[in-house]
Write a structure and sequence with these properties.
314 residues, alpha/beta, 5-stranded parallel sheet, 5-stranded mixed sheet, 11 helices, binds 3'-deoxy-guanosine-5'-triphosphate, binds magnesium ion, EC 2.7.7.65, diguanylate cyclase, protein kinase activity, two-component regulatory system
Length: 314
């Protein structure tokens, strides 16, 4: 009941960009007492573009897991000193490794043994002898799911944009990049005008639709390399690398106009909303930290509100 916005398309675009960012260099840790098997698994996965570490002596497992930060652990189920399921149980005692995928390497076919091993903390099995293609696909998929999940956790549920802490982190990262390259960077702060009135008049559910519509518009108007976040309730932050305040102002004005034209429908009536924005860039204020840039953008946003809203200030 909102003017056509191709939300599935935007979702696909976001998913594609997540995929791209998440490809390759999967970090896999393998523990097995069979040196020849270790060498084989290492060769296959390394050739497939993964970063592999192998361990013959399980007593180094905790150290190595801490230093290597694997995204997948392959554990031999039967070793002379200690069994794989004991190692899995040990790893699971640490909260930081609760979501770490663990697969057992085994010839074991006894269903009770296998069920027991799963209960101890492993997520599944790779049967020996290990086929090359099966191994690669299994490892790649496990890591991909983990990365997608980690990415999803960083996103706001209503808009699919970064959450408060994550957009601030992204700003810090992009600022370092901008300092290295000498390119400008702009920070945009946007806030929906009189949003309390929207909630009070049309209800919280429709208010949520308005918020998610702004999220969709942001992903449509900014570049894929721009970092977008829902900063607070009806407040958004965009970090634009390689973009000075003048270019950002033109862009944000187009977005502001597009938003003001959208008609939201509530039974027999319809209404439209507007938003105000403030922009700060590193050109005018070189050497500023993320926090200070955000304050400047917020001050500019305040100016826009003072000037009657539905406008952009630098
Ligand atoms: P201004 O033009 O000065 O920005 O006025 P405003 O009414 O937009 O500003 P104010 O900060 O007073 O109101 C923001 C409102 O946004 C208050 C809060 O209830 C509402 N809000 C915050 N988060 C959400 C949300 O997730 N969903 C909905 N529907 N409303 C939200
Ligand atoms: Mg063995
Ligand atoms: Mg507001
Ligand atoms: Mg606000």
């Amino acid at each position: 009941f909102v003017k056509p916005l191709n939300i599935p398309n935007v979702a696909a675009k976001i998913t594609r960009s997540i995929r791209k960012r998440h490809q390759g260099e999967e970090r896999v840790l393998i523990i097995d007492d069979d040196v020849d098997l270790l060498a084989y698994l290492n060769t296959v996965l390394t050739h497939a573009g993964m970063t592999v570490e192998t361990l013959q002596d399980p007593s180094h497992l905790l150290d190595r897991t801490s230093s290597f930060q694997p995204e997948l652990v392959l554990l031999d189920l039967h070793m002379p000193e200690v069994s794989g399921d004991e190692l899995a149980a040990m790893l699971r005692q640490f909260e930081k490794w609760n979501n770490l995928p663990i697969l057992y390497l085994t010839q074991e076919q006894d269903q009770q043994e296998r069920a027991h091993a799963l209960m101890r903390g492993g997520d599944g099995f790779i049967n020996k002898p290990v086929g090359e293609e099966f191994l690669i696909k299994t490892c790649r998929n496990r890591v991909r799911r983990l990365r997608d999940m980690q990415h999803a956790i960083a996103l706001d549920g209503l808009t699919g944009l970064l959450r408060h802490a994550n957009i601030k982190e992204a700003l810090g990262t992009e600022l370092q990049g901008a300092a290295r390259s000498g390119n400008p960077l702009s920070v945009v702060m946007l806030d929906i005008d009189h949003f309390k009135h929207v909630n009070d008049t049309y209800g919280h559910a429709l208010g949520d639709v308005v918020i998610s519509t702004v999220g969709t518009l942001l992903t449509q108007h900014f570049r894929r390399s721009d970092r977008l976040g829902r900063y607070g309730g009806e407040e958004f932050v965009a970090v634009l690398p390689n973009c000075d305040a003048n270019a950002a102002e033109r862009l944000v004005n187009r977005l502001r106009e597009a938003f003001a034209e959208i008609k939201f429908v509530d039974r027999e009536t319809s209404f439209s909303c507007s938003l105000s924005a403030g922009i700060a860039d590193t050109r005018n204020f070189p050497g500023l930290m993320g926090e200070q840039l955000l304050e400047l953008a917020d001050a500019a946003l305040y100016t826009s509100k003072q000037n009657g809203r539905n406008c952009v200030s630098v």
